[in-house]
Amino acid sequence: MSPRKAPRPGLVLDVDASTPPILFHHGEGFRMEKLPPGRSRVIYPAEPLRGLEDPDGAIRDALENPIESEPLRALLFKGMKLTIAFDDISLPLPPMRRPDVRQRIIEAVLDIAAEVGVDDVHIIAALALHRRMTEDELRHAVGDRVYDAFSPSGRLYNHDAEDPEGMTHLGTTNHGEEVQLSTRAVESDLTVYVNINLVSMDGGHKSTATGLSGYVGLRHHHNVATMRNSKSFMDPENSELHTKNWRQGDVIRNAGIKIFQIETTINNNTFGETGPLSMLQKREWEWTSRDRMQFLAMQGGMRYLTCSAKRRIFHGWQAPYELTSVQAGEIEAVHKVTTENTYAQHLVPVEGQTDILTMGLPYISPYNVNSVMNPILVMVLGLGYFFNLYRGKPLVREGGVVIMSHPTQWDFHPVHHPSYIDFFEQVLAETTDPIEIEKKYEKQYAEDEWYKHLYRTSYAYHGVHPFYMWYWGSHGMEHVGQVIIVGGDPKAVRRLGFRPASTMQDALEMAGDTVGPQPTITHFHNPPMLMADVT
Amino acid sequence: MVLEQRSVIAEVLAGKRIAVTGSTGFLGTALIERLVRSVPECELVLLVRPGRRGAQARVTRDVLKNDAFDRLREEMGKADFDAMAAERVTAVAGDVGTDGLGLSGDDLDLFLSADIIIHSAATVSFDSPLDTAVEVNLLGPQRIANLCNEHGVSPHIVAVSTCYVAGSRRGSAPEQLPDESPYFVAVDWRREVEAARRSRLDEENASRQPGQLEQFRSEARRELGAVGTPALAAKTESLRQAWVTDQMVANGRARASSLGFPDAYAYTKALGELALVETRGDLPVSIVRPSIIESAWTEPRPGWIRGFRMAEPVIISYARGLLSEFPGVPEGVVDVIPVDMVVAAIVAVAARGPKEGGPDVTQVASGTANPLRYKNLVDYAEEFFTANPIYDELGQPIAVAAWRFPGRGRVEGQLARARSSLERADAVLEKLPLRGRAAEAAMRLQSRKELLDQAFGYVELYGAYAECEALYGLENLLGMWDELSPEDQEAFGFDPRAIDWKHYVQGIHLPSVVRQARAKTTPGKKVGPSRATRLRGQVLAPERHMAAFDLENTLIASNVVTSYAWLATRRLPPGERALFAAKALAQGPGWLALDRKDRSDFLRSFYRNYRGAPVDQIETDAVELLSDYLLSKAFPAAIRRVRAHRAAGHRTVLITGALDFVVEPLAPLFDHVISAEMGRVNGRLTGGMTAVPPTAENRFQALVDYADANDIDLRESVAYADSSSDLPMLEAVGFPVAVNPETKLAAIARKRGWLVEHFDKQSGAPGRPLPIAPRTGARSEPMLSRALNRAPGRAPEKTRR
Q: Hey, is the C-beta of B647 within 8 angstroms of any chain A C-beta?
């Protein structure tokens, strides 16, 4: 770890005549945009917090001194059934360099288990209705040694929410929400959950109540009504999504299922403080001439690459994330600490809302790691994730405009997103109204045998997953008056129900229809990750 | 209905029974219509070939339902019209191509009880085979005469012939019998009949010579590819028959021109007149000779036409910009006569009765009385199509070319050059492995070639006519005209001098031709559901029983070789993978050649590569093969289609030459999978097939067997395939769909109007240049204890990303 100045907090910059063009992520590329001075501001993330000096030591310490729980060692006994569940490929973004936090923690847990003499250990990727992880991805998350020791014997595997034998119905909450959990977790004497908290939405009861659940349980909170009542889903205190997960968590606890929660936070050292992408996490006016040269060379070089080549290059990037905290023990107590630690890195205080919110969407979202960012994922990254990265009130005022920058190609990964293709070709061709979509199509896609088959045996997201994506954006869709995508494939953008613009200038002019002349503009300079604390 | 009670013609024919042959033709229909409408008290007996539905039904469908009768139907009301027709029009089943006209019993009696027989049946096509033309045109009239003589009846026979019996010549051609002309080459019609019949036998024999048969076979193979023996045999036989017909057409043309006739039609008609005259005995005979019959001048309505006549294809080709030159001399005469005038002249001749000393000849033409010059016709047409252009499929108007009146030789030379360059391009394209849209582009070239062939045909056929400068005498016709009462002249106008050619061409004929050709006359793209949308609707209609799918290039862009390569490399150590790829590349061309020759031989020989592979490992790997390779090469729209069929309640069947374990992961999409099955012994694959792999005709047979076993009607089923080798399967079902077809299948699908689908790989799918599997297997020391007991805090091992 290199000695480093104290990291600076996030910043809201008022754009004036001397402000240089601002960096916008734009899929597998970038745009530099000059924002109108006098009425624009840019929200920059905090600089990466310092990582823990001795992550393995910190992990051991957390296991031995958990919060509101006995030490892990005390919870283990010979002959017990132990299950280790871990966050899947959607975390963190982009994937972190080896060794992955999950590998460190799982190895530490296995060390203790071996010392106690626990034999019956299963390791499960808690992916709910996400796609299964490939061999390479599992190896990356848990490390080769764990993989080679557990996978061939069938003790390391992906969660299968459609396995009729593999899922147990635990009952319903006092609000009538059904609770479903992996049978292995239900039958285990202890389930250790290994989490990575990239954003404040992650973790807590959501880890198990969602991660090890299936359609029957998820449909109670993965729906339009819940998402529209989660303001935002990144703020657990004000999120209906979390309230319902917590209720389901109570049912799990009351069913006598023991969970030892290990949560971690990482800093937002996404592109590295040195290296070829380091300028992406610097503020533009602090770019050195070397940064500028590298950026220009990158932009120039990429012009000659095909889409898939660019994808390969960008998806090859692994972030030098560092562990900033690790805490273990009782779920809710642990999660309180985790959320504070997440906020410490992400929250940037912002005063007042804006007429137009601009965002540059990068090449990656939780659902296209090693895959293709299809138009639906573009929508969910902008209107789902970025829009919801607020506490208090949304950055953009009600009826305002969101301008996102992304190429939004009509491209899909045929293995990972088969139901997305059909959703885009069939459902969105008919309507983009989340309520109507939910009512008319969800059941059919969710219960489709072919999608189930692909989810279970191939590497496909569950048939219902594109619906969840659409619901994820429903709060944003309801809140804003217009969405414009700059530089997107016009056909694909229109299919999403948005308006295409070829330049930022055009987009700002088009936004005038909705918000009037001389609107205020706020640019959400993310990634690296930030969350607006709007007052 | 306005009855011209004072019409002499109508009065003379009142109460008469008139038998008509050829009533289903262009002239015949117009004739029946006029007789029914303008001679209200005559009775009609129509001799027709009965077809499947019987004579009466054929008359109702092919004659009375024609739009020529719309006028009368409107005037009378439908019910009255039907009642009147039922009373006055009787059909008898017969055929002028057989001796005795194929008549018997009541039909025969009815036919022979006629007062007048109007014989207008002919094979008017200018390119009919020699013997067909001889049987119908030459022997037809004398068969009628013989029949009458045999039964001792003597009705007035009005035989419709053609002006062109005068042969190709310049100068005047008066209304006389062919052998009265000084230019007539004396031939015995009986010898001509014998020769024509013999020539059919000769050609049949020639077509069955081994060398000839081999040629048909190789042509069939070239056209269809490796479709299997039965389909090839069927195609070979149809090629043989087509060849014989072509030869007979050529023989007809050759024989005709050797005797100075423009074609077999004129030649057989001329000898037909002589045969009739020779065999008629005492029968009263009149001959009516029209020139080129075109759409109606006024009756039953201006522009009425039936079917595509001689000049129409040429006109439409011109308007579509396909034909910019047609042989002919500018000042030459195009002898066209509107159909209603021919009809009126026939009725007038029938009413007038035979002239003393018979047989009398009446020519119905315009050339001498009111000539239409070739140059004027071209000018009128050019003007018309410039003002009212036809539009191409993109909705752009087509500009017509300036006409240059070249000689026939020059036009033929040009066309021949264009054709041979297209043929060369076509031969090259045929050898390229094109698919989908590229194949369709190649096919357009082919259809261009077909159009050129057509144009070539027109020039060959009609060139002689366009260059014919004979002037047909009209003395008898005009004499008869002068004798008509004014009322008859009003009701039965046949005076060619009344025609205003500019009005006729631009106001009547061309609009009618354009309408008839269903040419596009409005700008802009077609609106409303396209043909493909309609076909798609039929294919997915709930009434269908089954949808059968081929796998490779129909659902997935891969083949047995790539699947094998993937499976074979799955467990290879990294070093050996490159070696494997190199070996495979070296063997590629050999495999490809074998595949082209016979698919099932190729599969059997290729599948031997699997010998000895452990079954359970292969089955595990096949699941990964689907995800890692096949699905990324899949066509999502095709998979959606399979599911749509299932949602519509159809049975879905996969039928493929791929191996059972390779397609097993796809099984949930289908109700049934028919694939190649490999033997298994002691947990290992044998490399041999347990049955013939379902390709080509075996595929067809497998489908038929499956349909039989499951009570499925193939006519109500759909099949999807990409290659002409699937032709037997596609032809077996009622709703074939060509998916991303290669050139041959694209051409076939287009000709037969099949639905063609272009299913693409998903844009954004990961590119996979080589079908090499990702590595699997242990990468670390497989010792858990070591992993667990390593010193705390030590950095984990470095591993390759």
A: no
